[in-house]
Structures are given as C-alpha cells and as structure tokens.
Amino acid sequence: MKKTLSILVAAVMLLGMMAMGASAQSFYDIPMAVAAPTLDGVLDPAEWANAAMISFENADELNWVVDAADSKFGPGSTLLFMWDADYLYVGAAIRDLTVAASNPEAGGALNAGDGVQLCFFSSDSAANGQGDTNMFWDFLPWTGEGRNPATAESYEHFNFADTTTNVKLVSSIDDKGYAMEIAIPWSDFAAAADNGYEVKYEPVAGTKIIMECVVMDQDEAGQQSLAYLTDEWCVPATTDVFTLSAATAGTAPVVEEAPADAPADEAPVDVIAPAPVAPATADAGIVVAAVVMAAAAAVVVSKKH
Question: Whose CA, among 2, 40, 95, 225, lies 20 to 30 Å from 149?
C-alpha cells in the first residue's frame, strides 16, 4: 500500500513539473500610477518610476518572427506599464540606430515598419486571429513618410478592425530611435467586450491580462522583423500574464502652498530671487537611460517560469 501511494505521489509531482515546464509563461505585476503621466512623448523618470519594465535591449534573449540578423536594439530599449482608473499606460523607449525611412500610411493596418504591438488573449485556450478571443494592437510613432510624430497612430486588427481613435498616443523621434507614451482607455476594453470579446478588463487590482509584447523593426524596405520575449509566437498558453497591482508607481504632483500673509504690524521683507538656471539639455538616449535606472531601482515586476 505504501509503495503504491509513493508511486502515485511521484506521478503527481512529475505531472506538475511537466505542466510547469510546458507553460513557459512569465508573470508580471503592473503597478497603479500615483498620478497620470504627462503624455508628451518624453518618458519622465519621475512619472514612470517603478513602472513594470520589459527589456528588449538584449537581442540574444529575444525571439524573432523573421530573421533579424541586422536588427539590434540599444541599451534602454524597454516597454513600461502602469494603470489607473481611466487608462492602461504604456511607455515605449526603443533605441534603434537604423530607423525605417517610412511606416505604413495612416487609416489602415499598421503591422509593419518601426513600432510596438500588444497582443491580448482572453484565455489560455483562445483562438488566434478571432475578435472574440484575440485583440492585436499596433502603435506606430509615425505613419507614412517623413517621421513626423504628429502622425502617430494606433490600429486594432480583430475586434475593432479599425483605427482606435480613443487611444492617446504621443511620440518623439530622434537619430537614436523613438519613444511613445500610450494611454489605452478602459472604455475601449469595455467596447471590445460589447463587440464580443470574451473578457472585460476592469481597472481594479487583481485583473489579469494575457498579453504578448512585440517590437517591430524595419531597417530597410522589405526587411521586416518582429521581436518578442515569449517562447512561442502568439500561443495563448505560453503568452505572459500581467496582473494589475495595488502597488504604486510614479510620483504625486507637488502642490505648492500659498505663502503666509505678512503680519499687519510688520513691513514685508524684500527678497531678491536668484536668477533661474537654464536646465541642461539632454538627448533622448540620456532621458531613456534615466527612466530605465529609475524603473529598475524598484521595478514592480515578478517574473518566474
């Protein structure tokens, strides 16, 4: 009897280990923003401090949909995540010395060029490419020719199958790559559920989101690559899980107190304010590095296989 029981226990443990190995999912916590970040295309280190951070800077740790022999992302290439009652916030800082000459034109699918994609699945058994179980979002820092940040746009493929005009997207572009600040309204997720998506993501701690993070890279015309971190391309059962957390990220805005009135029987003292000091300029690469250091200092991320 004891021998039989030992065999059963060993079998259960083996099955559990096999199931864990087959999953290969990573798990991340997305903290709540203390205050909404200013969406200006600049990833302010204070505003994004402690945000969940996903690194894309080590090409050896990435998987690629297409051969990417020439695709390299520099140090500081990251995606950042926070949330509040109104939006899921995404910060993208991609250091790419070979920025595409052009991106797809606005008004249609944007799954090419240089940009970021987020692929949502309703469950581990979701069907890929069907709007009731899968949403695939494109975010481009510019569209068409000219690398103009004013033309930044987002598009969702399977549920809305349209440009998502409610998404706030602001970008900045320089000779070292690009940055984007994105705010996806929870009302869009509610609208997706109204359209038939199986899950309605709610802005409350504990909400779980199965999501694939992708960075698109096009160094030359016809040379399109897509980088991702999971073991398999858009397989729900091995796609990473993000959980909204009650932990906080960012910094609260400083509220300046009004100066106290001078006593009536005392004459106010004249104070000569020092001349303002012009802030030192910094290129986007330095700003991105500061963001990464701030996020890495206390990143609210738990990753385990």
Answer: 225
Report CA 265 to chain centroid distance, whole Å: 58
For residue 295, the SS3 value is helix
- Host H or E run for residue 247: strand 241-249
- What pLDDT, in 10s, does the model give residues 179-226? 999 999 999 999 999 999 999 999 999 999 999 999 998 877 667 888
Domain ranges of the chain: 24-252+283-297
Q: How far is Cα 261 from Cα 209, in angstroms, rounded to an integer?
A: 52
Q: What is the CA radius of gyration of the chain?
A: 23
Global model pTM greater than 0.70: yes
Q: Quick one: 109 exposed, middle or buried, by C-beta within 10 A (0-12, 13-18, 19+)?
A: middle
**CATH number for the domain formed by residue range(s) 24-252+283-297:** 2.60.40.1190
Q: Which uninterrupted H or E stretch holds 2?
A: helix 2-23
276: left (phi over 0), alpha (psi -120 to 50) or beta: beta
CA dist 175 → 65, 98, 147, 216 (Å): 26, 8, 11, 17
